[in-house]
Amino acid sequence: NQEGSIVVEAGDGVLGGDIFLSYIGESARGKEVYLADRGVTATYSVDTDTPGVYELWVKINDDGLHLDGARDAKITINTSQVSQYNHISQEIDGWKWVKISTFTLMDGVNTAVFEKIEDTTAAFVMDEFKFVPVK
Known about the structure:
The chain is mainly beta and 135 residues long. The chain has strands spanning 6-9, 14-16, 23-27, 30-35, 41-48, 52-60, 73-77, 81-85, 96-105, 108-116, 124-133.
């Protein structure tokens, strides 16, 4: 990990919304967030004393069995900065880091919310995420 990166375990999140198949917890892959239901969220507090611009990377899993877009997730930082994980169907053996976008973090506690946006047969599955400082 690059110096100054902020790494957050997916298992540290708080699940919200109308939960049916979604969970945060242990699976055969380890501790993860599994957002299967439309509108379900995983919320995280991200503390930093180094405010500035960061790239957000997510560590995801995919079996390649669902159409592109089936695992899309909206990502909101501090209620006003919004981006999206755009799912490209692929078979990932283990986990893979994917770059999402750049966000500005403020000094202190920042809020990161991951939300499953579509009703599909696939889930957004994440092991961890990180904010990497833009030099």
